[in-house]
Fold:
Amino acid sequence: MSILAIDLGGTKLAAAIFNEQGNIVEEINIPLNGREGKAVGEFILKTCAELLKEHKAEAVGISVPGIVNEKTGKVWAPNIPGWEDYPLLEEIKKLTGDIPVAIEADRTCYILGEQWKGKAAGYDHAIFIAVGTGIGAGIMVEGRVLKGANGVGGAIGWLGMQKPYDEKFRERGFLETRASGYGIARFAKENAEKRYGYTGMLSQIPEEDITSHHVLQAYEQGDPVGRDTLNQVIEYWGMVTANLISIFNPQIVLFGGGVFGPAVKFLDEIIQETKKWAQPVSIKQVEIVSSRLGLKAGLFGAGKIAFDLLEQKNNPNT
Amino acid sequence: MSILAIDLGGTKLAAAIFNEQGNIVEEINIPLNGREGKAVGEFILKTCAELLKEHKAEAVGISVPGIVNEKTGKVWAPNIPGWEDYPLLEEIKKLTGDIPVAIEADRTCYILGEQWKGKAAGYDHAIFIAVGTGIGAGIMVEGRVLKGANGVGGAIGWLGMQKPYDEKFRERGFLETRASGYGIARFAKENAEKRYGYTGMLSQIPEEDITSHHVLQAYEQGDPVGRDTLNQVIEYWGMVTANLISIFNPQIVLFGGGVFGPAVKFLDEIIQETKKWAQPVSIKQVEIVSSRLGLKAGLFGAGKIAFDLLEQKNNPNT
Structure:
């Protein structure tokens, strides 16, 4: 028995076959190379078809960087042009036929993956804070993932944490504009502009090419813009962690995502900041750690939802 | 058949008898008059004994301004001196004997009351934001109140919404120090001190006597400190409302509590501020309204938990 797991990101696709024991037996990682709209759907089908040539899957789980309409299986993925209402379920069924398919938001998959095979194992109250290009949270309450009334819950990129409001937060929300991969690069550019006569490392890179990795590097080198930016971002990461702890009183908070990989060296500083702000009883009851699965959390989560689907099919009354 | 409901506040006590139809047939409202510790417990017993003289209650529900230990029935209520670990369940049982008793945090009771008899009826995803002396939220997720791993969830008074951290937030948290009844008075005093040569209304009142009601009054009169303070508080109220909407994707958000009664005239301004910050899909799916039950939300919630207890007792398998 095996299952097929798919983790679609904004810029890359991962697909894997899990065996009955929940281990990955084959895996493909491949960049989207600027594909958009229907071309992304076709790319997913082609990649999966390759895996299914050699493995017979009994269920399929898909993690997507956006919101899933539970009724229609259509996906809104803001970072994939043309995926405002993409009929992913319908498309994938062309390949998989009668095999059951589950699609979930990436933040849901992150926390499910980490609970299945990572550091959140055994916990019913757990939060995965994902900082990549964007920022979001997979939040588990009493063992169930928080989705909200219409599947949009966990959108922490929209948290406001410094007034007054500015129009620049309109497109992606305050926190994402300040403390995601996208936000760090943007924030550093703003800080560089404000610093009169700045000739440091970030001024040597064409502005449109600056990424969060450059800013992290500038920070390491003692660059004033890099330091000023990252110090503020660490404050925001600490505040949002504290705020989620005060609201949810969780047992564990995990950090993951493409930016939090390189940024995990700041974990101690983030925890120090978190301790200042959080509800004093809740902060004593929570572990704050980096994700065990790292960039594979979404793939494992996609695997888990496929296994759950199979379990449900085989034991319809549980 | 009737039930006894008790709503303990930081400065007053309410108790009521509900009939089988869920209507209040008798009610007592009485100030604590500075009582502390065990004297508060005895006061509760005496008040209830009066109601029980004429009504036979089959279950008791109690709302407390703090955190309840579910196992021991002990209560931590920060605004009642001597209630660090008060054995309320044990005390109340001296009066009620074998009658089942449920004790819940006030924020839990607010949302349960409003779902039972107020504007949250029919909703499974609902949030009650209570602004009184303190600030907290009763949050309903999939029809169940969010309590967190150890019953401390919903502590939104601790939300950080403006860096940098300051030591003055240590005792009650950022949001409570800025936007609760306590916080509004304190914030206005700080703003008055910062305003050189201020001789307005708030400068005429002895500093230790200033309450949030004076600040609201000063705002009404166009006093610059009142205006500056309330305008910022409205921003914070909007931000926290937006943040909860972005995290929970709820169907309805209700405002209540002792300060939100007089402040409900700001509802439109709060909603305007909320719309700026919130996740754009979730904000379109939510109603933002004032509580229907107002200051009685806690009493109705206490009634509801007593009815639930009775229901459970009569139908143990449901």
Q: What stands out?
A: The first helix of chain B runs from residue 37 to 54. Chain B touches chain A through 52 residues (CB under 8 Å). The mean pLDDT of chain B is 94. Residues 90 and 206 of chain B are 42 Å apart (CA to CA).
